[in-house]
Design brief:
Elements lengths: L4 H38 L5 E15 L2 E14 L4 H5 L1 E6 L3 E11 L5 E3 L4 E4 L11 E6 L8 E10 L8 E2 L6 E11 L2 E8 L7 E7 L2 E11 L17 E10 L5 E3 L4 H12 L8 H11 L5 H15 L1 E2 L14 H7 L1 E2 L1 H14 L4 E6 L19 E8 L2 E5 L19 E5 L5 E5 L9 E10 L3 E11 L1 H12 L5 H9 L7 E9 L5 E11 L3 E3 L2 E4 L21 E2 L4 E10 L4 E5 L4 E4 L3 E10 L2 E10 L3 E2 L4 H11 L7 E5 L2
Parallel strand pairs: 1-10, 16-17, 23-30
Antiparallel strand pairs: 1-2, 2-8, 3-7, 4-5, 4-8, 6-7, 9-14, 10-13, 11-14, 12-13, 14-15, 18-19, 18-21, 19-20, 21-22, 23-24, 24-26, 25-26, 27-28, 28-36, 29-35, 30-34, 31-36, 32-33, 33-34
Helix pairs in contact: 5-7, 6-7
């Protein structure tokens, strides 16, 4: 017994350590389980939440130039078993300018086991109307997803061009418990930032000085999930985010070097991409310009012909790679290829116009899904598009070659009200706002002539549209399949009920795309009701906005409209011989500061006429106007139930 005692003493530390380890593991698992239950209680309807999203930037000087590295940590906790199919795949982006350095992903099981991701897949990520997009997307599946499991992702990048720092978005398609951006920047570098989007008051900002750095920390706790709406503008309009950029830095001699301190700095950067483009004109392109303009003396006529030729002969294709996302291709190459991206369209338009003696300029612009302005944020992220601006009669005209239906003199709908940076020369530029086309230029007039039949009603339709509304129709006609044309036109004309039958149709297309008329004949069984000697009929063949009441205050996200417009629908019912009008619903007009309608009933001879007119004065409808929008609908909906009656003469 005595000889065994030292051996027992020898094993005692191991047994003690093992006991402590077991207790710590059990305690850790208990805390983990408690934390999971708290999260699930906090988000009872969510399949998963992001526990942490932390993006850290290190911005320093290297070889006399700003040098940027970033590291991202994301942790997703899965709350429901159904999250497996719904959210198992995850991923991250990278590009030539955001060079991937390292990445790691694994699942932390509820039992605290670490299961690494075994396979990653990388593909390109293309978007329409891109100004720069060589983005690649790497995706993978977290293994063993179950309630209580945590997916972990760590990614590091080298941001090769610090002019192109991306905004940080705090929210996601799932709730985020802790969302944080941390920027450690050398004191020799001046950093600027803006908080943008909605609910930025929830973002805490701290700035501290430590050794040779300033540390900026932006935090947003318990971010609700982004709710996406089909009619919302781009998420930059509403999702809270930080835009940050380098204003200037000090070189080795202590001299302050401007970087993106103002629009002048941005223009110098932008101009560096175009300064060597189109130094000489391609002979074939010159021949085409001459053939289009030789017999013309008026500059506007020349410009119209050139613009039309580019729209009809150069196909828009979005393809970008590396610096190709910034540098336009030579106009001669675009001409020989017969295709190009937005910069290439701007290149060939600018070259052809200048060759014809019309002053033309490369122009940077952002589409309306971006809320930024050159005057507010002098950054490359403001512009995701390029167009051509020409000067006619002392005024600038904006030409977007990517839109084959756009009418000369009207900007494409997606750049209305946006700031444009026009490259006049190496030292001179202008920032101008693209005009918004007034609603009176975008008009739809739809007229329907109805007659009662034994089975219901039959009628004829004439629809005339102008401006952007006409461009939309021409755009549809470009893609409608001839085999399915009848069905496409039926969908365009449908009214009354789903029993609508298109009998005939005709489309009257003019040479210009700013006006078009469509005609149709149709029948609609079982629409009019006959009881004894009386007919009852609801002339509201269209019940517009019937399901468009805004769920306010739950919805805060703005609503976007492509353009301002006026839409007028006239329905005429022929009173059959031997009948008279016995009841005519009352007319009503209602307007407020947001929008309104006019519903007017009248009788002219043997015709009963309902005129419905709606106007839209908005490009973006913000939440402070939602109650006024709904107020119009409260006055409109009851009118849709009104029915007129016809009585047989005694």
């Amino acid at each position: 017994m005595v000889r065994l005692y030292p051996q027992r003493m020898k094993n005692k530390p191991f047994l003690l350590f093992f006991s402590v380890f077991i207790c710590f593991t059990l305690f850790s698992n208990i805390l983990r389980a408690q934390s999971f239950e708290l999260i699930r209680k906090q988000f009872p309807d969510e399949k998963a939440v992001m526990l942490n999203r932390t993006l850290e930037y290190s911005i320093d000087l290297k070889n006399g130039q700003p040098y940027v590295e970033s590291h991202d940590l994301e942790q997703i906790e899965y709350l429901l078993g159904t999250a497996t199919a719904y959210m198992g795949e995850y991923g991250f982006s990278h590009s030539d300018f955001q060079e991937l350095v390292s990445y790691d992903a694994y699942t932390q099981t509820p039992e605290d086991k670490k299961l690494k991701v075994g396979e990653f897949k990388t593909s390109t990520d293309k978007e329409s109307f891109v100004f720069y997009d060589d983005v690649k997307h790497t995706t993978f599946n977290f293994p063993s997803i179950e309630p209580g499991a945590i997916g972990n992702l760590q990614v590091s990048w080298h941001n090769k061009d610090p002019h192109l720092l991306s905004p940080f978005y705090f929210t996601d398609y799932m709730p985020v418990v802790n969302s944080e951006l941390k920027i450690t920047v050398s004191k020799d570098i001046s950093l600027k930032y803006l908080l943008m989007g909605l609910d930025t008051g929830y973002i805490s900002v701290t700035v501290e000085s430590k050794h040779h750095n300033n540390i900026y920390t932006f935090k947003y706790k318990n971010c609700p999930a982004d709710k996406r709406y089909a009619d919302a503008p781009g998420f930059a309009w509403y999702s809270p985010h930080v835009v940050f950029y380098i204003e200037n830095y000090k070189d080795d001699q202590g001299k302050t070097v401007p970087y993106l301190s103002n629009a002048d700095d941005l223009y110098r950067l932008n101009y560096s991409y175009i300064k060597t483009v189109n130094q000489t004109i391609d002979p074939e392109l010159k021949r085409i310009v001459d053939s289009l303009t030789t017999k013309l003396t008026i500059p506007e006529s020349k410009a119209r012909n050139i613009y039309s030729w580019v729209q009809q002969n150069i196909k828009y294709v979005a393809f970008e790679d590396g610096m190709g996302g910034f540098i336009p291709r030579e106009a001669g190459l675009v001409c020989s290829r017969r295709f190009g991206d937005c910069k290439d369209m701007a290149s060939i338009l600018t070259e052809m116009m200048n060759s014809a003696g019309i002053p033309a300029y490369f122009t940077w612009i952002g589409t309306r899904d971006r809320p930024y302005k050159f005057s507010q944020t002098p950054l490359p992220l403001v512009s995701n598009h390029m167009i051509c601006a020409i000067k006619l009669n002392g005024n600038f005209v904006f030409l977007d070659g990517t839109d084959p239906t756009c009418v000369f003199g009207m900007p494409s709908a997606m750049i209305q009200d946006k700031e444009a940076m026009i490259a006049i020369s190496e030292k001179e530029y202008k920032i101008l706002k693209v005009p918004v086309i007034e609603k009176s230029k975008n008009v739809l007039i739809d007229s329907t002539w109805l007659e009662l039949t034994q089975n219901g009603i039959k009628g004829k339709i004439k629809r005339t549209v102008s401006g952007y509304l006409a461009m939309d129709i021409f755009g549809k006609l470009m893609y409608w399949d001839k085999k399915n044309m009848n069905e496409d036109v039926k969908n365009e004309f449908e009214r009354g009920s789903n029993k609508f039958k298109l009998d005939t149709f005709y489309i009257d297309k003019k040479p210009a795309t700013d006006r078009i008329s469509l005609f149709a004949g149709f029948s609609l069984p079982d629409y009019a009701k006959r009881i004894g000697n009386d007919y009852y009929l609801n002339l509201n063949l269209f019940k517009f906005f019937e399901n468009e009441r805004i769920d306010y205050p739950q919805r805060k996200t703005p609503i976007e409209y492509s353009y301002k417009s006026i839409k007028k629908y006239v329905t005429l019912l022929k009173i059959p011989d031997g009948y008279k009008l016995s009841y005519l619903p009352q007319s009503k007009t209602y307007n407020n500061a947001v929008w309104g309608f006019d519903l007017h009933y009248e009788q002219k001879g043997n015709w009963v006429i309902l005129t419905q007119e709606f106007d839209n004065e908005n490009l973006v409808l913000t939440s402070d106007k939602f109650l006024l929008w709904n107020k119009v609908l409260e006055n409109l909906y009851p009118l849709y139930k009104e029915t007129l009656s016809l009585t047989k003469n005694q």
